Automatic annotation (TrEMBL):
SUPFAM superfamilies: GAF domain-like, HD-domain/PDEase-like, PYP-like sensor domain (PAS domain). Pfam families: GAF_2, HD_5, PAS, PAS_9. SMART domains: GAF (SM00065), HDc (SM00471), PAS (SM00091). It comes from the Bacteria. The lineage of its organism: Bacteria, Pseudomonadati, Nitrospirota, Nitrospiria, Nitrospirales. This is PAS/PAC sensor protein.
Length: 636
């Protein structure tokens, strides 16, 4: 009895262990990432499925158990699945296997099957894997490959040395032959030309009727479907002919459109127009494809226009180079001539044929050739030379050995074929002669002006020795101050000349006032103050090289407006007048006058220093102080 009881306990324990093992096994199957089921191999009735499989089909596991295996497959392919599931061999099927979801949609899967015998029953074990994502990725990859293939084909067409219109014809044929999209064999490409920015011009078309060719040859931006796509810069899709389709004609068949703007940045270059069947449903994939094609077309059109522009520029440059009177010469890094224009032939006497490949120094005088070769080599190797970047004057030699002056401007430029030196040269023989004649005329005028000044000074000295000596001393100090301020040589001479006769207006002031030993009466002083205006009026019609009359008029003005005769302020006063003003004050205080003894240089410099920036220009005062610090003294 005890033995029998022990055997029963052991049996119960073993059953419990098996049940626990089965539970763990089922739990393992439920948590796996695969979709698992078992079915009777003879009847096809499902006897087990894990939870993942139940979730995949949206059917509870209890409902699946006892269901015919074939009900989980699409109706139209049940026979194919029956063939797959027959036999006892292991099978691994990847392609075109689908399960049917409760809602009717098909789920692509990968299937592994194996037939086993358990407890005398033949069971079909099936393991499914959902490959929806893989299918989508494969589909997208295929589309991308197809898209890349057509883009590559379009780019190959673009590389052909044919006009843009012919390129667009071939590209349109290629797009319409793309089998992934359901297009009619009909379409067009319109382009916006630079000279007609308000309209789309038909550049390429496929299967347009004659009347359509006439209607669509030029489409205003904003009109009809193509014009609307250009105006909005957005893809326009219609699945039928509606009111926006303004170009209608008798016999036009029902259809839809994709009108795709061809854009580059913010600019619209044109529109790609493709026909589709009436009622066609557009997709995101179609729009993405057409957008990619349009982007490629934009690059092609932009490049073609750039090449056309460059070609026109090149033709214009060739025309300019050959028609200009200046010599334009180009040489390679070995100083061999590679370009010689008509202007060079005219100036130097050599034809283009005579100079091709010849050394550039054939236009350089013999004694200067060695230095020129060194300078040219320095320019090529370092990019720095007096030959580059600025206009210089040189001596050149013609074919007949005549030497003459030229003006040269040189530059280096680099292209794929190498580095080149280009020089623009101008024969300045006539210019040099004119300049020489002009300088001679100016020198004569200077001498004549100097003679006039000397004559005026002599007249003043005869009437008033103090005034004449005063003007000479003011002129000397004014010239020194102008030099200290860094004025150019010609301007310094103008200051000296004006200072030499700045009191010429006193010729109209009675001698007794000029030489009066005491203080002047108000009426006398007012008469004296008119000398600036009188001096201006005397000299205003004399053709001096400088503004002598205006300088004389302003030499008693003060920068605070307290001067005379006009009460000018600050920058309204000529800098030359400001210089003479300070020199006039310093000289007058330093030297003796009929109405008072000399006050001395220290007091004079103290006066201009204390009123620097008030009565007198600060820079001019600083220049005056610097001149005296370096030892300037009045003479005579």
């Amino acid at each position: 009895m005890d033995n029998e009881h022990l055997t029963e306990v052991q049996l119960i324990s073993e059953v419990q262990r098996l049940r626990e093992s089965e539970g763990k096994f089922r739990q393992l199957l439920d948590t796996t990432g695969d979709f698992i089921l078992q079915a009777d191999a003879q009847t096809g009735v499902i006897c087990y499925c894990n939870d993942k499989f139940s979730e995949l089909l949206g059917i509870p596991a209890a409902e699946l158990q006892g269901m015919s295996l074939y009900r989980i497959f699409p109706d139209e392919q049940r026979q194919r699945y029956a063939n797959i599931l027959q036999g006892s061999d292991d099978k691994h099927i990847v392609d075109d296997i689908y399960l049917r979801h409760r809602e009717g949609r098909h789920i692509p899967v990968e299937l592994r099957t194996k037939t086993v015998v358990m407890d005398g029953q033949e069971l079909l074990c099936a393991v499914f894997r959902d490959i929806t994502t893989r299918k989508m990725l494969d589909k997208q990859l295929k589309k991308n490959c197809q898209l890349q293939a057509i883009i590559n084909s379009i780019l190959q067409i673009a590389l052909k040395p044919i006009p843009l219109r012919r390129q667009l014809d071939l590209i349109l044929d290629l797009i319409l032959s793309y089998q992934w999209l359901v297009f009619h064999a009909k379409g067009s490409i319109h382009i916006i030309e630079a000279e007609r920015p308000e309209a789309l011009v038909l550049f390429a078309q496929k299967n347009f009727d004659p009347i359509q060719l006439k209607l669509c040859s030029v489409v205003p931006v904003g009109k009809c479907l193509c014009g609307l796509a250009a105006a909005t810069r957005e893809i326009l899709f219609v699945n039928s002919v509606d009111d926006r389709h303004q170009h209608k004609y008798d016999g036009m068949l029902p259809h839809g459109h994709y009108c795709v703007p061809i854009t580059l940045g913010k600019r619209v270059l044109g529109v790609l127009n493709l026909y589709v069947s009436e009622g066609h449903e557009h997709t995101q994939e179609e729009e993405e494809f057409l957008a990619a094609v349009a982007n490629t077309l934009a690059g092609i059109i932009s490049r073609a226009r750039t090449e056309e522009h460059l070609l026109r520029n090149e033709e214009q440059m060739r025309s300019i180079i050959q028609t200009t009177d200046n010599a334009i010469i180009c040489a390679n890094t070995d100083a061999e001539i590679v370009l010689w224009n008509n202007g060079a032939a005219k100036i130097f006497g050599y034809t283009q044929h005579e100079t091709a490949g010849k050394p550039l120094d054939i236009i350089v005088p013999g004694p200067q050739k060695d230095n020129f070769r060194k300078d040219f080599r320095t320019a090529i190797e370092t990019g720095h030379s007096y030959l580059l970047g600025k206009e210089i004057t040189l001596t050149a030699v013609r074919k007949d050995s005549e030497e003459f002056p030229i003006e040269l401007s040189g530059a280096l430029w680099t292209v794929q074929t190498g580095t080149f030196f280009t020089a623009i040269l101008r024969d300045i023989t006539a210019h040099v002669m004119e300049r020489r004649e002009r300088e001679q005329a100016i020198e004569k005028l200077r001498k004549l002006t100097g003679s006039v000044v000397v004559a005026i000074s002599a007249i003043l000295e005869a009437r008033d020795p103090y005034t004449a000596g005063h003007q000479r001393r003011v002129a000397d100090l004014s010239r020194a101050m102008a030099d200290e301020l860094g004025f150019p040589k010609d301007m310094i001479e103008g200051v000296r000349m004006a200072a030499s006769i700045h009191d010429v207006g006193k010729i109209y002031v009675p001698s007794e006032i000029l030489s009066k030993p005491g203080k002047l009466l108000d009426a006398e002083f007012n008469l004296l103050k008119h000398h600036s205006q009188i001096g201006h009026d005397i000299l205003k019609d004399v053709d001096f090289p400088w503004s002598v009359a205006q300088i004389i008029l302003q030499h008693h003005e003060r920068i605070d407006g307290s001067g005379y005769p006009l009460g000018l302020k600050g920058d309204d006063i000529l800098i030359e007048a400001k210089i003479i003003c300070v020199a006039d004050v310093v000289e007058a205080m330093t030297n003796h006058r009929p109405y008072r003894p000399a006050l001395g240089i220290d007091r004079a410099l103290g006066e201009i220093s204390s009123n620097s920036g008030v009565l007198y220009d600060k820079n001019v005062v600083d220049a005056c102080l610097a001149v005296f610090k370096r030892g300037f003294v009045f003479k005579g």
